[in-house]
Specification:
about 180 residues; alpha/beta; Rossmann fold; 4-stranded mixed β-sheet; 7 helices
Length: about 180
Amino acid sequence: MILYVIRRINRNEGNKSSPEIILLLHGEPSWSYLYRHFIPKLKKYRVIIVDLIGFGKSDKPANKNDYTYQRHVSWIREFIENLNLNNITLFCQDLGSLVGYGKISKGFIQWLDFASQQTTTDVGRVIKSGVIRDMKQEEIDAYNTPFPNEQYQYITINEDKPHEIVEHLIKDNPLILARL
């Protein structure tokens, strides 16, 4: 069995003695860098920011079949259990919501459609297109850092199976689409 590692951003933020934990799960195509401005506002809590497998500073499996909904859920569950995290407030978006809550948004389906048409992904450009303020070049570059070439971009483009995660979720719980 191959073990992949979920890596937190280099630090465990906020009040490490707080009994309340805020767990931040990013979406596609971003990584935990997305939440860097949240930290100062949440300093009274213990804040843990996770890079999902395939994103950011976490492992990026070369085998495309490793990227399934159930595996993402299992990896996060193991991460939470290994750190013995309790009393968690979960804050997440699109893929993070799917993994954390088992809910899917229309926006995430739109992302999958967009991603399935890409042969490469400029993550910084994608993020910039959805941000209402001006972004510095260093920020755009930072979003691209974990995805230096196509080998690392599979999770953000997934052209072979763009709706694989959705199909796994629906198979497990067909009522989810009714919530859209």
